[in-house]
Amino acid sequence: MNETRNLGRKTWAQTTSWLLASNIIRNLASIAIVILLARLTDSKTLGDYALALAMTTPIFAFLQFGLKGVYLTLKTETRFNSFLFVQATCMMLAILVSCGVAAISSPQLLLSVFLVSLIKTNDAFCELFSGPLQKYGKPDLIFWAYSVSAVLGTLIVAAFLALGFSLNMALGALAIASITTTLILLFRQSTKLVNTQISALNSRNNTSTKELLFILKAGLPTGIAASILSLVVTIPQYQVAASAGTSDVGYLAVMLYGLAIVDIFLGTLTQAWIPRAQDLLHISNTDELAFGKGLMKSVFLWTGLMLPAAVLGVYLMALMFPPLLGAEFGMSLEIAIPLCVAIVLSPAQHFAGVGLVVKNYYFRSVLPSSLAAFTAALCGYVFVTVMGLSSQGALWAIAFALAVRGSTTLLMVLSRKTTTTKK
């Protein structure tokens, strides 16, 4: 079985490059849609879209259960059909819950939330289908599939909005195109590859209850932590909507894309750092400080590099957004400072989070995420609701929340109780 894992495997640098390029292409398409909405519609439409995303993101982050990561890291070979069954069941539940929440809190957004839910369901399956391609050395296929989907989806949304169709019509067309592309380019390739590599295991199409429970048990803490962490960004958006309206939410959503790009980069970077972290953990059996030293070295290095990158990136955003999106998306110093602070604080939480995963302390990741979400809610209430700072206050709330998660996770990783590996 171990031999099949290594068939066709790319080098570490090649795999990392393909995955980084894939994630960049995929998220550039999301940014392009926001830009199109800002240019071709009004601020209320953009705000409605941002609220639909904010409403569905925590639900899908939880019920996606990080199944790609579970698939890639489980030591026991488990049938891919079982992962597909769990994913399909969870996504149906996510759609129902999202629509239920919308029907109660924002009934005027029910159709938009349903369509965004379909798009997020497709995104979740894209993630899962890319697992076998990454595992068995075909990351280039992920890049080309994501590229086709991104270009096609962006062109469809641009065409529908340019022709004067509504937001929901554009989202519906995007959902149909995305699902079709995923089925043709990712589903067929991933299932074919899995069946080729471990045909004996996957020839049995039925799934056992024990196997399904095993997958759920492995993915549950990851889903909980991801869902709670997503509240760090979504709670301040709700608070801005309540105090200033959906137009300000649209503005905040655009500003947050600077932070989103950094998260994409750091997520791929820390994924590539996992083998090094595992080596450090092994060395720590004889040198207890090795893991902590290696972790803090990476945190300080990338925090230092992120400081000038944040200043330059935010400066470029301030220059480019007004001519690209409109004068209403100008960036003042009051917005730029908390955005830079949030970006600079990001490396610590990313590297510390990977440190917990490498040590197999999955459930412990829930506590820092919970504290961060509570911090975002509390600071958001003070800055946005009480002080009326709107987007500026929301960005400060997010920055404080990231600081809490990063510091708390680092303390948990570096504490004496977690410096030794499990026996």
Task: Provide a descriptive summary of the structure in words.
- The protein is mainly α and 423 residues long.
- The chain folds into two domains: 1-207, no CATH class; 230-423, no CATH class.
- It is built from 15 helices and no strands.
- The protein has helices at 2-6, 12-40, 43-63, 67-73, 80-105, 110-135, 139-162, 167-197, 199-202, 209-244, 246-283, 290-325, 333-358, 366-386, 390-414.
- Helix 10 crosses helix 11 and helix 14 (366-386) runs antiparallel to helix 15.
- The radius of gyration is 21 Å and the shape is globular.
Number of domains: 2
Q: What number is the mean pLDDT?
A: 85
Structural class by secondary-structure content: mainly alpha
| Share of helical residues | over 70%
Number of strands: 0
β content, as a range? under 5%
Total number of helical segments? 15
Note poorly predicted spans.
1-10, 418-423
Order of helices and strands: HHHHHHHHHHHHHHH
Tell me about the biggest sheet?
none
